[in-house]
Amino acid sequence: MGKYLSLIVFILSVLFSTSCSKSDDGKGGSDIESKEYIKLKSLDEIRGGHFRYAGIKMGDRKATFLVENSKSCRAHEYFSTISSEFYPNLDFVYQQFEEGPLGCEKINSGGAVGYHDSIVFLESSLIEEGKLLTTILNGYFAIGRLYTSSRVYKGFLEIGFQGDYLRIEDRMSNYQRKDENEKVYLYFKR
Asked: Are 73 and 97 in contact (CB under 8 A)?
């Protein structure tokens, strides 16, 4: 009987561990919450930077991070500064990826072939430490030109560093909040 009980416990533990959420390859339990959050003091701290998506924290749940060498398409996502002489108010881009016929591809929500959706930040400024005022739009770049389709968000975002990560209040990903006041943060690694 003891041998069967051990086998049942083993099978249940394997099933439980493989059925858990895979939102970000399942690396939960991070100690990021114990790291000090330092508000961004100047946009110069991130200008010229390219930050790879690392994880997400939703509400009061623990943050989940991608595992090292993740095969998830989220491992390709990034937040980066961007500039253009034609668009002086263009500041940042958040590029998302999804599984496509050729593997992980930039998201294309039905626009012309070869043009990929981006989330762009315009008219961004720090109005105080850690408080970014910005306008976020859906758009795509084609032949040196930015085309925008809809406004995603206009307002304030918390932004700063926590541990080795850039932490930004999420108003640009496809995460659906259960409550408009739920705090969601994306983590990025330089």
From this structure: yes
pLDDT (tens digit per residue) in 31-78: 898 999 999 999 999 999 999 999 999 998 999 999 999 999 999 999
Q: Residue 56: which of 30, 95, 36, 35 has the closest Cα?
A: 30
CA distance 120 to 15: 41
Mean pLDDT of 129-152: 89
